[in-house]
Amino acid sequence: MQLTTILAALAAAASVSAHFSVTTPPSRGLDELIEDQAPCGGFNTPSTTRTTFGQSSNVTIRLADTNSNVYVKIGYGANPTSFATTLGSTFYAKKGVYNLPFSLSAVPASNNGQPATIQISINGSHGALYQCSDVTLSL
Ligand SMILES: [Cu+2]
């Protein structure tokens, strides 16, 4: 078997074991092999396009790890590296597609119209994993 074939087989195997993905708002990027790298699953550069994000927005994930605590956090500014404010947290025993509950009540009104990053992290059957979605706040 050629090396490229082996690598392709390994990549296919890795994607089958996908831990979790964020479908809404769109993720900055997903690579299951480095999804354990905080704070954004190995993607440290913000998206060039941002999604408008408010209290009526959805945070939707596809969860493939069981027994997972799932956290929604926020960092302020164009490229935050700290996500100190928790907007919501929920435990899910099973795999599935979930709309995560969250509240923006703790977000200062001065952030309206400003860039921010939503960090979605899980701690489940494969440990702690991270994703980030870059948004513009509409409070
Ligand atoms: Cu996993």
UniProtKB/TrEMBL annotation:
> Which residue intervals define the domain Copper acquisition factor BIM1-like in the entry?
17-138
Keyword annotations: Cell membrane, Glycoprotein, Lipoprotein, Membrane, Signal
What subcellular locations does the record give?
A: Cell membrane; Endomembrane system
* Coiled coil start-end: none
Q: How does it sit in the membrane?
A: Lipid-anchor
Domain of life the protein comes from: Eukaryota
Does the keyword Cytoplasm belong to this entry?
no
**The UniProt record lists the keyword Cell membrane:** yes
What CDD domains does the record point to? LPMO_auxiliary-like
* Signal peptide residue numbers: 1-18
Q: Which PANTHER family match?
A: COPPER ACQUISITION FACTOR BIM1-LIKE DOMAIN-CONTAINING PROTEIN, HYPHAL ANASTAMOSIS-7 PROTEIN
Kindly provide the name given to this protein in its UniProt entry: Copper acquisition factor BIM1-like domain-containing protein
